[in-house]
Queue: 3 jobs
Job 1
Amino acid sequence: MKKIAYILTIITFCTASLSCKKNFEEINTNNNKIYNVDVNDIFSGTVSRTMRLIQDLSFNKLMNFSRYAVVGFATNPSQVMDDNYFNQFYVGILRDLLRMEKEYEGKPDYANRLAMVKTWKSYVFYMMTSMYGSIPMSKALADSDHSPREYAYDTELEIYTQILKDLKDAGALYGVSTSYPSDILTRDPVFGGSNFGKSDILKWQKFTNTLRLNIALHAQNLSMDLARTHATEAMVDETKLISSLDDMVKLQWGSDEALSASYYFTRLIKTATTFNDSTYPALGEYFGIYLFSYNDPRLSSFVHKANVLSPIPVKPMLYTDTLTRKHANFCTSTECPTFAAHQADGLNGSRIDDILVDYSMPYVPLPEGNSLAAGWEWEFIPGTTNRYSDPLGSKSSPYNFSFVHTEFLKENTSTILLNWADSYFLRAEAEMLFGSEVKAAQHYEAGIRASFAQYGQSGVETYLAQNGIKWNTDGKGFADRRLLYRANIRGKGGKENHLEQIYKQRYIADYLNCLEGWNLERRTRVLRFPPFFANGAASDVEGYNPQYNYWTERFIYPIVEQSKNKEAYYKGIENLKAISPYYRGDRWGDNVYTTLGFAKLNPDLIFAQQLYGGNKKITPNVEYFNNKYGKTYEEVVATAKSMTGETDDNQALIKAFDYKFRQRLLTYIP
């Protein structure tokens, strides 16, 4: 803890020296910052600020963008007008990194330190470019003696080309040499372990090379030649890629609530006086149906069961289901209106009841704000004057949903940038694009196994044997409750279908790595989730549709850029326009719905009005809940007894899942 406190002291010092610089122009004109501090004293600060920025962005924006979780208060589209995030990137992080890079450049006794700085700088520019698109890079942070008054916006291709060059250079710099024993970080915030010990150079090299592979494939829609060159070079020696759980890029928060606790913990747990299901992130339905459809045991590692977070017992959310049962077991004079006739005709052994029952579900997704778009309505229940209602809307407690597992949100949680599974899925993708399908299949399966190992989950072979998960097979998944989307996996056939399997498994394995999830969908469009439904809600977003909106494609530039960096700002918009597969002219093109150059066109845009516009009547069907415990009453009783050990039918049903009989619908002989 003393080391953590020391690091936080340095961070506080660095942050204080930055607090007066609010405009991008001031980044290059303030001479008061002290740089003659050893990398050990300032690098931890840049990493810590990056970690906090990642969680800030994820909680307020990217959890919803990626569909990994629902954060209820942030489901309506918004646009960030101020320069908060720009300043956190440039002033809080990149300024220090670029100055350190300059100080260590050309000094062989500090080659490892230079490689680490280049790697972290590359990751930060990758974050920023994938959020905004064209940004200032090459001249953004010039020396104060040569400060331009405007800072040119580089194109996406120029930025990714430079990032990949920097990573290639960094990968070649690493070396373990007794000639330069001090060329490490003595307090390494990335690979120094929970006590921030000395650097592990081999792990840093694996981070650099795996990041290079990741960004090469990320940039393939801009230039397949660029992607091919760097991806194949990065894979020449696969021992220099992440190859174990211990190699994962895993940034550790501290256990001191006052100094080093995670942003999530501070935001959601430490200062919370009451539990609010509109701020606490929960399982989203579209992500959930992939886990439900393929019996994915990682579900229990990703989210809690319903009601687990409640400090006191609460009533569960009950789901109404239809079962069949043997009529003879319930044909009594009080329950059967035709008891006498049934007893007399000798056919009771053949009769079946259809019954309605209520029971609780172990995992319950949180709805994404509005259940219906403006103009939509629930259909009438057949034979009645009553309409259906949202099956996920009948909560009895704010704890009824499945919220993100505390392991991701606790004070000393980890922030994972690249995991072991990523390394395999990236290699699988690269092999499908540039190499061998046989190797792609091997890496694909290894990636799934690596993800199961990361969460300590058993059952990987059973999971791999399923259609849709097994290589070169198709899987039919459950639909969401409104029957708008189905968690199918098309894996059988050629390259595109094999890539779909790779992408969807990587998406699952990267749970709550929200930037990667958002990036993966934009560059592949393999998930093609439906839009968010506005139902008439207002928003400040220009180009906003009060009925439905596909989610944010990018962040807009800070409004201050229009006055402080005007000429370059408008050139940046022209850069967007020149490369964008889907350019929106709203807000003169600096729009959240303008697709970035690295991304593919969302193929559903052309059909959006047909799919989601106008008046629609929705009949809900929660396929992933239907007959969860069995198709017949007798099967449900057997399930309840096996779960609880109870021998009495009613006691087992109540104890297992709060079972309630509602009504008999009809009796018939099949």
Job 2
Amino acid sequence: MIKKALAVLLIILAIYWSFSAIIPSNISTIDAPDNQFSTQRALVHLKEISKETHYLGSEAHSRVRDYILKELKNLGLETQTQEGYAIDENGEFSKPINILGRLKGSENGKTLLLLTHYDSEPHSSFGASDAGSGVVTILEGLRAFLNANKTPKNDIVVLITDAEELGLHGADIFVNKHPWAKNVGLVLNFEARGSGGPSIMLVETNKGNANLIKGFTKANPNYPLGNSLFYSIYKMLPNDTDLTRFREDANIDGFNFAFVDDHFDYHTALDTYSRLDRNTLEHQGSYLMALLNYFSEANLSALKSIDDLVYFNVPLFKMVTYPFSWILPLFILAVLVYVLLVAYGFKKRRIELKPVLRGFAAFFSAFIVSVLIGVFGWKLLLALYPQYGEILHGFTYNGHTYIAAFVCVAVAICCLVYNKVYKPENGASLIVAPLFFWLVICGVIAFKLEGASFFVIPVYFGLLSFFVLLRQKKPNPILLTLMGFPALLIFSPMVQMFPVGLGLKMLVASTALVVLVFGLLISVFAFFRHKKRWGYLFLVLGLYFVVSAHFTSDFTRERPKPNSLLYILNADNNTAAWATYDKKLDNWTAHFFDKTLAESKIENTFASKYKTKLEYTKKADVVLIPKPVVEVFTDTVIGTSKVVEICITPQRKVHRIEVFANTSYVFNTLKINQLEIEEDGRFKFNSRNTNKLLTYYVQDNTPLELQITIPKTQKTEFLIYEASYDLLDNKLLDVPARYTSMIPKPFVLNDAVIVEKKLKVN
């Protein structure tokens, strides 16, 4: 009994260790030595940077830029700005102003570039985490580095880009137009997709990662978190960072460091100074100092490789790596060992066919039921709590409670199912099935998802447990528990990270991982007589967490509801309408919409990351909003083509102009504000999937100038939307302030006064 209790205690300890080893538990103070990173000193900068929203085109945008430039100059760096127009593959167009600083090295090798961005997400985010945290990490890290009084071998360039949130525009003009870009050998990029939790390291490279991972390991950061699976998943997501431009456009490698917990704060008005996790900022600083010290002295010309490494973090050893060439041999060897152990077990009558088959039925049942609960359990909760659908990124304020609930239910299912096949002497027979399924997974991974091939490592320890069960009738449960440590240490954080980073729709990944890890620990649990009691205990715990989540399912001041409102004025027919993206109206939006129109939807007009459509509209009173001046300056026929020059000049303070044109139209050439757009370049304007031609993010009310060449017989019609983010401040509309339990919905055009106008070119 004592040994079993110790085994349970060790399992709890391993889970705790797996989390504590990936993020600092203490933060550095304001009086830390001058040559050390201080989170408290970094926070002084962050408080200043995140006072206001500072998206491109906002009043605070230039103030934040001036502050950062001043701080870089105070550090003794050569500073400058860079500006120019850029467009991305979706037709997002702006004129970013980048901030650059340079520290000269003692040699003439490749440059180490420190990267982040200073613009916040339009229009309500304060940008404290994304990416004020990156700005202050670099400022404080460089200050500490310079106070060590040593000259680096490599030049160090600081690039704090603009318009990252609009389409990586600042990185685009630096990589493709700035002379400093040609000598960059490595990029360290600091980002955020939430406001807390450990920071994940992601490699970005077009070829092999071997030398990059070797360099990272030699740099020896104290709390490394990353594995080759994470980057494989990252590449599948619709999320890029500035580092993507370096990799895709200039074949320059780098590391991303990004945290994703408290995902509900991402791009919202909750991304504030007070909500940034201080331990997270400490973690970012620990990465920067270790890698800055190492790569400022390393040969950055030797980082390219054709070889890849499988890598994963684990406590004590920090980062474990091995070459891709080992993947197949390790898998084949594991299969051979498994077959030999099964054959040996049958020969020595330590395993029997009937218990083995029961073990297969038990594991398969537990896995299928847990996966179904992960999928349909969350769908049921969405049906019961439709308000969760208003959080577009899919991670609710009580998301961690739901993770705990689903994990407990999955453990309960495993205990209850395996209680049916309990016999102390059946331990060896029961582990046959989990090992078989793990080997099937490892086989698929070896050929389809090589980055996840470290999954085979815990399998080897499972095979070792299998061997012990075959050789000993009463094996030591503590020894068997220690053999389960690799599975617990590697996969416990993933149980939480998948639904946190990818949304609660990925709770199925948590429940599946719980069953898989339970299977590898069946050598321990097989000897627990009262698994039914454990099952009921975890069911009660799961129910407790579900009930607890219910009591935090509403929206409050601490958990505000994201909502949206637009005023759209049609300048051609002098009509107006209110519109919202919200599927569920609340006490604020209900002032503007008649609930009888709840089924009324209009076409998805404005760009949205999650393809969110406008749900409700209602006729509104027309107010005197100044309309843009739309002029056609030239309309010249040359042969079979017609050259048309159009200028759209705002007559009020605006932030965004969207231009729509039917996808059937042919544009032989396109020039935007004197920037010539190549059809075979990044933005393929004749191969669009939607009618949106471009979105122009306006600075200083600079007009939008278009020069197009079209077939002379083509009748072309443009639909123009001019938007300002001042709906709540516009005295003509008299929109009341949101309640304290609400915030503007992110990822959509929101709180905007929009003027719609058609332009026909006949």
Job 3
Amino acid sequence: MTTGAGAGAGGNSISGGTQGTVVQAGHIEHLVVHQTPPPADEVTVAPPFGRRGTPLRGRAELLARLLDASGTHVLYGLGGVGKTSLALAAADVLARRGAPVWWVAAQDAGRLAGGLRAVARRVGVREDELASGQTADLLWERLAALPGPWLLVLDNADDLALLDGPGSLAAGTGWARAPRTSGLVLVTTRDGDPAAWGAGPVLHPLGALPGPEGARVLADRAGEQAGPATDAELLAVRLGGLPLALDSAGRYLASVAERPAFLRTDGEPATYGAYLAALGTGDLAVDRDGTLARIWAMSLRLLQDRGHARVEDVLRLLAGFADAPVPLRVFAPDRVDVPPGELWTCLQALDRLGLAALRADGEPVVTLHPLVRDAYRAERERLSAEAALDSEVPEEHGPLWPLLVPHLLDDLGPDAPEDVWAGAVLAVRSLNARGLVAAAGTAVERVRRGAADRLGDAHRTVREACFEHGRALLNAGREREALALLGELAAAVGVAVGADRPAAPTPAAAPDAAPALVPAEDSDLVFALQVRNELATALQQNGQLERARTEYAGALDGCARALGPDHWRTLACRHNLAVCLALLGRTQEALAELETVRAAESRTLGAEHPNALVTRENRAVLLLESGDRDLARAELAAVVAARHRLLGADHPHTLSARFNLARCLAPADALPELTAVLEARTRVLGPGHPVTVATRETLERLARTLPG
């Protein structure tokens, strides 16, 4: 049977029952800062094959498509992501096949125009024709007349205004146009704005390298002596899958390995694991030579030149969050000084350049590139994530909570302000509500200790952390520890254990007036009632049923008078009292109470609210035990379907309902269902959790009853 402490507006807590790939970039991003372009007669259009380093990783499929393609294809993404590497690989293959290949540096007007004039000469445009001022038209006419395949690369074309030339890039009359023959034009750029490119080119975003491919890039430089592939994958993820950063780390490890051990300094990392640890402690800088800083600076200048004046303000805001997707609701207009429209255009621009990834479908989120986050972490602006919650509570299982939890638990240092600790308690509450037993248990101990050190044991936030710790212990099957902790908390908040009501005073009511109700979430009285309800659950799970019944009854009386008979907390207390009555053998009395609660919750919360589903499940279990198997089976099947849809297949509440539904089945049909439930509970709760053990014992007893 499932019991619940009613620990949130969305559910009685369960207890006792129940990216694509990318190419490598190793010194292949053609970064030129404040250099004067050479005279036109010194421009070369030969591909820089000498800059090819270690093998190409992670782009075999895209490379194959490009080699069979024609037209204009744009490779865009963050600097250092490997755009030039992919273009060089295509140039190498086509050159080996005998196709003409030209490489034009497009980072400034002089190089671009000089390079394209050099290409024009190669394809037969005369000097007197070049002097006519129609170079672009003449170049593309000659290219269209060429037989067979050819390749023109425009590398580092970050300023798209330069590609307009005498016409318009978007209109197809600029320097870059779609060839009308079998020729291929590859453009590498940071800017993937579809509006700027027009309808002709095909855009290919290059994102982060996934862990396994990133590990191969590291191994290409560092070799096997740097550690196992699993460690390399962890380091690759920490470096954001950026090929340039991976190449830099691999070179570093290789340089350490080639020196005798006695020539290494103490603590100098020589393995993937040591390098990762040094990054985590701040003892090692990813960007030792400033290459990445120059990449960020170039990208930001590009955005600022295009009118995104507040882009660095937005980056500082994003850097204040954990390395995880940030829901855009945290940037409500009343919380940030960047106007909403400007914020949105900045996020779009950061997404196009690969500095961040914007996802606007479903719950809108933005993910800052981890290395960009590192670069801005020291000057971040911390924005408390819990302020984005509005009226939502963790137990309602909305899409926002899983996104907020990593941010609410991030950077919980000794100087963290009070509201940060309050948000961390909400995060634990969400983990408890979502049945993430291990995660809740790990997080709550850290939150409770840190909040107590910062705020003191008597602070309300610390007491709420203790309450969530008690819930987490109950969910983990550690009933004795939970009872001790909740007993101490009950005494601290003024709950008179065993009395008819909490010691805290109830609001007075005028004669003949409706009962005066206290605020539901902030009242000390309501918190005391909540603690008493959870304490009763701990008593029940420790086998002290009569004491649990007394505490449930006291909590129910207090909630009814303070909040009203139909408040969700009052109904949760009544539900829990009914479960306790059932465990005491008072089945018909318990059924009557559960029917009352079921009707009220269906009316006030809805039949598929998490609280209502708990009540429906436990009522069905009592119906089964009373002999009404068909009604119990139909109700449990409906609960399983609703929970599967709302909470997911692995939520402990879903598994509880599946376990109870299996009890309604014939033994041969119940066996595979209980086997599946046992596998899931072992994975979710652990093999030693009391619920897992009970499931295993039930399955073994059932198996012994079957023939064979």
